[in-house]
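TICKET #2291
ISSUE: user wants both folds in one file
ATTACHMENT 1:
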Amino acid sequence: MKSQNLELLLELIGIENFAKLAEHCGGMSFYIPKMPSKKLSILRDIKLLKELEVSKDDIIKAKKYELSCRTLRRIYDRS
């Protein structure tokens, strides 16, 4: 891990938690995925809007999600 990544981790979780992490996971290499909260939020919104019988086109036109229309269509169709 680059030293600036370690510094960021230390800043985010604090010295005590960093020490615990180093004690239990020192020497390991692992990937920390991004939080899926944005997608979960969109799925929750789409489910609610479907229940309210809002049209697919109106949902896809919503710019608040900052996603492409194609991505919103895919999420809509999977939900």
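ATTACHMENT 2:
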Amino acid sequence: MSPDGELCDFGALRFGHRGEFQRDAAQSVCDAVREAGVRDLFVLVHGAHNDRGMSDAVDESFIGMLNRAAPRGGERAGVVSAHWPSMCFRDEGPARAGPEGSAPEESRSDGMRMLSSDLSRVFPDRSGTVSEILKILHDRPTVEMAFDSLGSLLRRFAEIPSEDPLSAYATDMGDEVLPQDDPMMLFEETRTMCREFAGALSDMRRALKADGGQAARQHRSGPGAAEVSEEGTLGETHSAGPRPVHPVSDRVKRVGTVDGVHAGVGTDRRDTDYAELWDGAFELFRQVVRFALRRRAGLVGRQGLGLCLPFFARNSGVRLHLVGHGLGGRLAGFALGGLEESEAEPVLLDSLTLLQGEMSHFAFADSLPQQVAGHGALWGLQRMVKGPVVCTFSHLDSHLGVMYPLSTQMIGDSAHLSSTARKWGALGFDGAQGVGGLVSPVDLQDVTAQSELPASHVNVDVSTAIRSDRIPMGGHHLMFDPLMGRLLWLAARRR
């Protein structure tokens, strides 16, 4: 702590599109950490970097949460943030969300102008394509050919050469044997995918209207928990965590080949009008942007942050605690691979906490239960963390519970015993899956009432700490509950 009892704030380290960072700047922060006598250093990673103001606001929220939860009389601690070329759409922005996730209303034109500016900063080489996409989404023409034009533009926005290093980070499934690594939403007929996402939005609204979100809020893990789904495949029962019995959308319960015909993708009992289709088109674009950002997060984590972290551990005696939220969770996870490849002596993190990680729940899996071979892309990398690995999940995170699996599924999936949610589910929705030795999930309120975490690798159900029914993100961005701060300190102090 600083002399006034608060964490020492060491500012931010900045990473480029390919993970570039200034070694002199990293060394300067390292020297400042050493001079301050910091024993515990939190490294924060999130994805809200539309501009400097938003980055700083979210950083301050995390730091404030840690300060309020800090144990009294503890050793001196500090925090440094990792900033990278990322963004969130303004209608979901965590820095602007109030206690109930409310955000100011904006006209469509104003919103599109802000979105154009944000995207141009984060994807400067795609600015022309972005302008064309946003013009179509703003005009919402009532002609069929407009959807084909949109699909071509979305593919142009997302495409990269096969030899581009980014292509290695398109999936969280290691040894996945597929003809391509891009998701189905880029290759299926665009109008079909617009209808699919429009239907998912409608499903969410219906679910909220039916129960006011109470069913999800009442979910708890552990003793006395609500019944959980047995959905899955042979061999999963020893390592699989809970899935909600009644998902918000039945679309993620589909079983069988994903091809737009047999699986019923984009089909509804009634015709979808143009207004709904364009709502779905906007959501499709959001998910394409997040796919591009997830891909970038993997590269920046491995080639940037993972190679930068050794600066702080070298000859300093500092304990490193890596904390990643959302897209930053994927970046933090892939940073373990960079640590492994670092030329420095092996640097072990003292804790890793993934808050609503936007990555596959099989990322750390020893094997993929729906296949006879393969494993998660981060398989075995838990060994780079000598302390706890904590993964939070929430059934109120509708972004990760519905939109993530719909946007990551791939054409040609023939996992006939697994549903879309099972194979393509997110770590931040139902926890890490397929990891040997994983204990039963624990509830946030229960675990933070204890003096230490129950295990070195644990899934923590944080549904009871989230109170937002916003569509389509749910509680994804609302991570600043006091109990979350307590959880971070429990992870940092577990030996």
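RESOLUTION: both attachments delivered.
EXTRA DETAIL ON ATTACHMENT 2: Confidence is low (pLDDT under 50) at residues 95-105, 215-230, 232-240.
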